[in-house]
């Protein structure tokens, strides 16, 4: 999939997706399609198709949302959250809201957890990636 650089090329979002990605909402814990996804592949930004994470970076955190202990280089930006307590993560390409990043929980050797809304991403299985190359 081509990464959309211009806002006019962004994917059309459902009202639920726009609530999360544009309005910085959060899906209810335990409701996301990718929370327990164990398939190999790549997670893309739902709005612009920017590759964000790989399945190797995903882990079970039991927090209610998909969790990753790293991102693809340059894929995610960190910004102070409006609440002043957390760090928001957004797509580095379109600045769509993904979720929040946490440090100091010691859930993985990297000691980092990207807590991401499933509705902010599209999963592309490795089989589809291989067929396009």
TrEMBL record:
<dbReference type="GO" id="GO:0033743">
    <property type="term" value="F:peptide-methionine (R)-S-oxide reductase activity"/>
</dbReference>
<keyword id="KW-0862">Zinc</keyword>
<keyword id="KW-0479">Metal-binding</keyword>
<dbReference type="InterPro" id="IPR011057">
    <property type="entry name" value="Mss4-like_sf"/>
</dbReference>
<dbReference type="GO" id="GO:0046872">
    <property type="term" value="F:metal ion binding"/>
</dbReference>
<feature type="domain" description="MsrB">
    <location>
        <begin position="6"/>
        <end position="126"/>
    </location>
</feature>
<dbReference type="GO" id="GO:0006979">
    <property type="term" value="P:response to oxidative stress"/>
</dbReference>
<keyword id="KW-0560">Oxidoreductase</keyword>
<dbReference type="GO" id="GO:0030091">
    <property type="term" value="P:protein repair"/>
</dbReference>
<dbReference type="InterPro" id="IPR002579">
    <property type="entry name" value="Met_Sox_Rdtase_MsrB_dom"/>
</dbReference>
<dbReference type="Pfam" id="PF01641">
    <property type="entry name" value="SelR"/>
</dbReference>
<dbReference type="InterPro" id="IPR028427">
    <property type="entry name" value="Met_Sox_Rdtase_MsrB"/>
</dbReference>
<protein>
    <recommendedName>
        <fullName>peptide-methionine (R)-S-oxide reductase</fullName>
        <ecNumber>1.8.4.12</ecNumber>
    </recommendedName>
</protein>
């Amino acid at each position: 999939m081509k990464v959309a650089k211009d806002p006019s090329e962004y994917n059309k979002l459902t009202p639920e997706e726009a609530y999360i990605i544009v309005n910085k909402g959060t899906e209810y814990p335990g409701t996301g399609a990718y929370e327990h996804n164990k398939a190999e592949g790549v997670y893309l930004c739902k709005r612009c198709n920017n590759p964000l994470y790989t399945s190797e970076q995903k882990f079970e955190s039991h927090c209610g949302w998909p969790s990753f202990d790293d991102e693809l280089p340059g894929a995610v930006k960190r910004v102070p959250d409006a609440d002043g307590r957390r760090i928001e993560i957004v797509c580095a390409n379109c600045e769509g809201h993904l979720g929040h990043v946490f440090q100091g929980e010691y859930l993985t050797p990297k000691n980092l957890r990207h807590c991401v809304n499933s509705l902010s991403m599209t999963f592309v299985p490795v089989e589809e990636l291989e067929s396009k190359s």
